[in-house]
Structure of Bifunctional hydroxymethylpyrimidine kinase/phosphomethylpyrimidine kinase:
Amino acid sequence: MLLVISGFDPSAGAGILQDIKSVSLLGITAFGVVSCYTVQNSERVFSITFRKWEEIERELSVLPEPKVIKIGLISPEFVKFIREKFPNAKIIWNVILSSSSGYFFESAEIVKENLDYADLVVLNNNEAEKLQVLHIAERDFDKKFVITFGHSNDHSDRISVLYSGKYFAEERIIHNGKSHFHGTGCAFSSLLAGFIYFGYPPNEAITETMRIMKKILILSGKEEPLRQVQTEKLAREWMKYEALEELEEIVEELVTIGKYTVPEVGQNVSYALPWSENEYEVAKFPGRIRLKEGIPTFVSGPAFKDKSHTARMCLTAKKYAPQIRCVSNIRYLPEYIENAVNAGLKVFKYDRASEPDEVRNEDGKSMEWMIKSAVRTSEQIPDIIYDEGWFGKEAMIRVFGRSPKDVMEKIKKVVGKTTQVRL
């Protein structure tokens, strides 16, 4: 078990909330005990209240014995008590003497008195100088201090970490000319604790932690004034894998039914994520699905590549109904519309002649206008939006749903009775 003992930061950029997010990113179940309460945001600390040891100890007593303990902001003398309570645990202590905004947390002298109770001590270069341990970390026989140089102005294009006489380096991430993120120390030390939990030796854990931190920071703090580590943005990457997997699962059905559904321009199935904002954040089949000698052929497997009309439709549809994230286009036949109506699906007929010239003449705008028209008329996203074609435009049926499976079920209702397809 991995245990986190750290302060509570209501902004969630640092402290125990950041710690738990970071180790959860590695798939680790972590337990947590709050060591202090702070009033702060991503820019400034206003106050802090440390908890009594008796309160902390009471909570520790009801939890399983930990394998690894990550300690953050805490009354320094409590590290000794934690070591006495859990003598076999590996303790990683992220020492924090003061906030970036200058709020004083811990006495350097009291911290120094308790350093021996931790297996690894993580601190930035400013804190290392105050504790007079920088020269120790530069020795190759030292196995205790991990010193980060994110606060250093030297080598501004690189972030360095010193451990056991060796410097580890990674690219410094800069957004809008700024490279400071609230919570980097917490995220770094928690990820480090996570890899130690997996059994990594410290030097390998540092290397892997720096690699993950780079990925996190690339995605973090782009929205002003939120200048903090946003681990959750990397955590949601699992949703991309799931989206691709769900598209893979319908490939066999698409092949079976494709000879009845693939239009002349090709078919696609696009699947947006809840947070998708552009076409490259929508899963789809790049190059579309084509008929070759009557057999559906995939140019590519599902991927987050290329642009697509159905991807744009997904993005527009979920603005009106966030749960509607999947769209497919299929061949138009009058009997398909009749089947859809008989199956109880909500159907909207779109008249391309009603499009304003500025919509018709700009690529991609027709699909957006079409969905807006359907919502204005139906006050919802229908299951089916179809049109009977226009000059240079093939007649088309678009099927909307929550997921690829949902869309496939609707497609089968549309074509099933006509073709006697059995899937």
